Amino acid sequence: MSLALSGLTAVALDAWLGEPRRAHPLVAFGRLAAGLERRFNSAGRGWRSHGVTAWCLAVLPPTLLAALLAQLPGIGWAVEILALYAALGLKSLGEHALPVAQALRLGDLPLARERVGYLVSRTTSELDASGVARAGTESVLENGSDAVFAALFWFLVAGAPGVVLYRLSNTLDAMWGYRTPRFARFGWAAAKIDDGLNYLPARLVALTYALLGSSASALRCWRRQAPQWDSPNAGPVMAAGAGALGVRLGGAAIYHGREEQRPPLGEGAAPRARDIERALNLVYGGVLLWLALLLVAEVGLA
């Protein structure tokens, strides 16, 4: 089965079924990762070498298994599709983001704060309506890159083992990649590997957002604002996305009880509920664009 058809089938499965409600493989992987962290980082005493060892034990066996299964006659094509389907979070992104926009439209700020708290790691209990919209829009733009486009990218590059390697690495970064006393050393490898795996996809996503939105503004914000952002990958994605939408993102946010002054992103008005939906439309349109380009490329090379 062609990559384009496999990708389209996996995206269709995600749109139809969403994330598996029972026995999601990432839930089992999360338990494994938590056990490895307790073993190799007891009381936060693990070193970088311990983090590298734990990362290898968590990620490499499933990746090798995916590579072997994808080569099996008769079922390899199904393994490829299921691997991408399990890694995608496109429908889930909408299921989490749209209720935030809906609560804002209804003027239910407490509910909007609660729902956006499912999307972001910052403190949301004191956000005003604009702050909720800003958090929701930022999350859609960034998670669209991490949970959707990067998974597609690594699937197109390396098939089932590529997407498994990426998704598990990204999950470990979400669990271990913090600059806290417990994870500063142990989580170093998980954070750096995830940065490396996301480097090219993030820039392709930034370009995609620019193509589908206000291109001149997106490219200008990407060039001027992304270098100011701490994350080498979130900076281009969110700066280009904010510019494409014509909204202002960034600014102050509270993480783990401490206020952080983040550089500004984008230009234009403060975000509102509809901008969360517009950000989702950027992601949806980008997925269709990637699949269409892949299909055209395959037909042209056939």
TrEMBL record:
The keyword Transmembrane helix applies. Pathway: Cofactor biosynthesis; adenosylcobalamin biosynthesis. It is a multi-pass membrane protein. The chain crosses the membrane at residues 49-70, 147-166, 282-301. It is found in: Cell membrane. It comes from the Bacteria. Keywords: Cell membrane, Cobalamin biosynthesis, Membrane, Transmembrane, Transmembrane helix. HAMAP family: CobD_CbiB. PANTHER family: COBALAMIN BIOSYNTHESIS PROTEIN CBIB. Converts cobyric acid to cobinamide by the addition of aminopropanol on the F carboxylic group. Belongs to the CobD/CbiB family. This is Cobalamin biosynthesis protein CobD.
